[in-house]
Design a protein that fits this description.
The chain is of the alpha+beta class and 71 residues long. A hairpin with a 2-residue loop joins strand 3 and strand 4. The longest helix is centred in the last third of the chain and has 8 residues. Keywords: Signal.
Length: 71
Amino acid sequence: MEVRIFMAFLAGVFDILLLADGNSESSLYQMLPFLSTLVLKNGKATAYVCQNYSCSLPVTSASELQTLLVK
């Protein structure tokens, strides 16, 4: 299974890593309908960093992701 969307939820002590493959028929998408709003950027694996009920704009490079995670 190819990983298509990466999301990191930063919630203080509790950090959650969520990997979604883009299959809107999967049980993950059925349980978390907001995943359907997150899309690939330019056909590349895409990362969203979410904190306090809000997600960043999508990024596709490791350096952009690192910048978001160290904020």
